[in-house]
Every structure is written in structure tokens, then in C-alpha cells.
Design goal:
mainly alpha; 131 residues; 5 helices; elongated; 58% helix; two-stranded antiparallel sheet
Length: 131
Amino acid sequence: MTRIESMFAINPNKDIIEDRPLQEKFVLKNSLIVLTRIRIVIYYLTWLLKIDGFIHHNWYPTFTKFAYFCLMAVLYFFEPRYIISYLVLILFVVVLTHSKFYETYLMPLFNKWFFSEKHLHALLQNRNKIQ
């Protein structure tokens, strides 16, 4: 309905939420349904945190978080029609990592950003003598 029509016409479905009529009085069953839904949502959230928990248990958490973010970005922006371009890009990165340019210019930057002593997991640093 347009805005003008809604001023004059009566909407018979105005008291319906989620295909259920809105009830005026409190019913214990409705609150139990809401609590059950909240419990299911909490269960799924904890399950997702357990799935992604591997990020925080690696030697270099900064690198694993960066790799996880890149993976999520690739999965979000992935389009099957560009699969050959993605494969060429992966092959280019593999060849680049075995080149002299990578060893002289890029490897020191990656070591500084991701693999230095300060980026090592707190429980695995030398002062803790766990290694």
C-alpha cells in the first residue's frame, strides 16, 4: 500500500509478527521458545569460535590472523568465472617466493611484520623456556 492508502485503509496483518498473531497476555511457553532460541544461537556462536580457535594457538598469531583474513576475503569475493585468473595468481606467488627478489627485498619485510621474536606466541618465547 502507498502511504496515503495506509492512512485510510486498515491493515488486517498489523498485529502479526513472524507469521504469528501478537498476543496481549504473557504466556510462559513464548518465553521458553525465546530462551531456547537464545540457547541455540549461543551454542552456534561457541561452535564457530571453536572452529576458528586454531588462529590463536599457532607459533605466529599475527601471521595466522592475516592469513585467515585473506582467506575470508578470497571466499567472500570469489567468483567461479575467474578461476583461471586465480590459479595464475597462485602460480605467480609460488614462483615469486622462490626468486632472488623475494629473498633480498620481501623476505626481510615479512620477517619484520610477521615472524620476528615479538610476534611469536607469548607462551613460546625464549624467556618462557617452553620450546
